[in-house]
Structures are given as structure tokens and as C-alpha cells.
């Protein structure tokens, strides 16, 4: 029976132990799958959560009669 590897975690790691990161590596993938909108703080304070925002905007769109169906 083979023995498992000994725990190789060190108490401390230096900068040279870390690989260099790539800035913005996943930015395009993030943007393509996300639709974020930043609300003004005054407006955001009127809504307790994202569900409330979506409900209010849905009602506004229905009232305006401009709902389109995406396929």
C-alpha cells in the first residue's frame, strides 16, 4: 500500500511562491453572462432587495404597455 503525500502546506508563503495573475482574464465572460445596473443610492434605499426592484420595474413596463417577448 502506498503512503499518501505528507501535508505540504507551509505556515507562510512569499510573493515568489505565487504565480503572476492576469488582469481582466475573465472580464469578457463575466460581461456576457451578467446584466448589472448600478442604482443611485437614493433610489436603491427604496428597495429592500433585487426582487423588489424587478417587481417594480416589471409593473412599470406593464403599465407602459411595452412588454416584448424574447425567444
Q: What keyword list fits this structure?
A:
71 residues, mainly alpha, single chain, 35% helix
Description:
This protein is 35% helix and 0% strand. It has helices at 27-32, 41-44, 50-64. It is built from three helices and no strands. It is elongated. With 71 residues, it is mainly α. The model has no long low-confidence stretch (mean pLDDT 83). The protein has a domain at 40-71.
Q: Low-confidence spans: pLDDT under 50, at least 5 residues?
A: none
Helical content stands at 25-40%
Strand content: under 5%
List SSEs in N-to-C order.
HHH
The radius of gyration over CA amounts to 24 Å
Shape: elongated
Biggest beta-sheet profile? none
Structural class label: mainly alpha
| Assembly state of the chains shown | single chain
| Number of helices, where a helix is a run of at least 4 consecutive DSSP H or I residues | 3
N-to-C CA distance: 58 Å
Number of strands: 0
The overall average pLDDT, rounded, is 83
Summed up:
With 71 residues, the chain is mainly α. It has three helices and no strands.
Topology:
Layout: H1 27-32, H2 41-44, H3 50-64
Amino acid at each position: 500500500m502506498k503512503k499518501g503525500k505528507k501535508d505540504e502546506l507551509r505556515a507562510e508563503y512569499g510573493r515568489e511562491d505565487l504565480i503572476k495573475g492576469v488582469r481582466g482574464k475573465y472580464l469578457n465572460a463575466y460581461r456576457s453572462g451578467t446584466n448589472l445596473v448600478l442604482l443611485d443610492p437614493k433610489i436603491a434605499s427604496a428597495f429592500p432587495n433585487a426582487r423588489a426592484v424587478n417587481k417594480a420595474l416589471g409593473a412599470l413596463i406593464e403599465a407602459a404597455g411595452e412588454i416584448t417577448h424574447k425567444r
